[in-house]
Task: structure prediction
Amino acid sequence: MRLVKNLTFQVVVAIIAGILVGVLWPGVGSHLQVLGTTFINAVKMVIAPIIFLTIVVGIARMGNMKKVGKVGGKALIYFEVVSTVALIIGLLVAHFFKPGSGLDPAKMPSGNISQFTSGAGSQMNWGEFFFNIIPSNVVDAFARGDILQVLFFSVLFGVGLSALGKKGEPLVQFFDQVSHVFFKIIGYIMYAAPIGAFGAMAYTISNFGLQTITPLIKLMLSVYTTMALFIFVVLMLICKVSGFSLFTYLRYIKDEILIVFGTSSSEAALPRMMDKMERLGCEKSVVGLVIPTGYSFNLDGTSIYLTMSVIFLAQVFNVPLGFGQLVAILLILMLTSKGAAAVTGGGFIVLASTLTAMHVIPIAGLGLLLGVDRFMSEARAITNLIGNGIATIVISKSEKAFDKEKEKQALAQMRGRESVNSLEGAVSVEHPHLS
Result:
């Protein structure tokens, strides 16, 4: 039956199975993290080569270096504006909804935050962040999977290859063929996506437990509601202005959304998103520049979570924040939130940096968020994923680098697959013996 072979169906079943194992057999689920980690590592293995090949081929075939700079500049401006809107929305909702009011920090479960506070000082060094974009060793950048360093080197390599003109064409064709090999590898890795989602979800439920969210349920609901508002109001408005449907786009990337939900990692879907955006009609060079850059500069979900967490902790510890302090929080997070994805536990390091800079909210309060953070990481990662895909389409359309025919073909194929799955599902219900 085709439905059983459908990736969406498989991942949904795996997530449900992971939750059940975590609740019913926590001792088993606590040892299944290796499944999720192995899957994410397998995806990370090919991210750097895919980014390099996509950018190099895209820039070399674009030929116009002025356009490359224009696309990059436009992407950074878009990222800053939209992520700032996300920060403001998170701040306003938390300020008025007050998810932390009435909670006693002494009665709430707390965790060890030493691994995050130790990195807080370095995260605040904005100049060092920019200096580190330039790799001292290209091989090391690829080995560590540093997206920004790989991106920087790829752009330079693409510019140099483009300058060779016809002499560089054989190399461009070679890289193009190699990129198809890597996307084929990603296709094989995705067969393991349900296993990775199952292991990650079972581990999360087993180790953190549904009971840990009880005292923080108001914060969770606030974060999820705010991210839904951001997607279905702000991003929907952006989609409408740019001339495409948010709901059609969400249907188109539903597999990637489920993979991210199951693994709590937006990187797990990065290679597939690059491939899908290109299939949808976005020019290869735009995809190569926008999506990898967005993973450091366009973290809409992370921005919402950061502002809401800071306000939440202020409310828990009864720290009154005036208008000037709210503006200061916004300005600090506009800087510290950039590059959070490049650091393990980046969200918590950014929070630690922000609280350290403010000197008004106890940094130890971060421990109160550890238990529930895992349950909100899915929402952050999904919002980041959706936002970066929309940014790619918007910038492609604004640069007239969007192929309408490709879009029609991609959406027609999507609807064809949905029709077949629906038909087979109906047959299996009405005539089980036929399935």
The chain has a mean pLDDT of 82. The longest helix spans residues 65-97. The two ends are 6 Å apart (CA to CA).
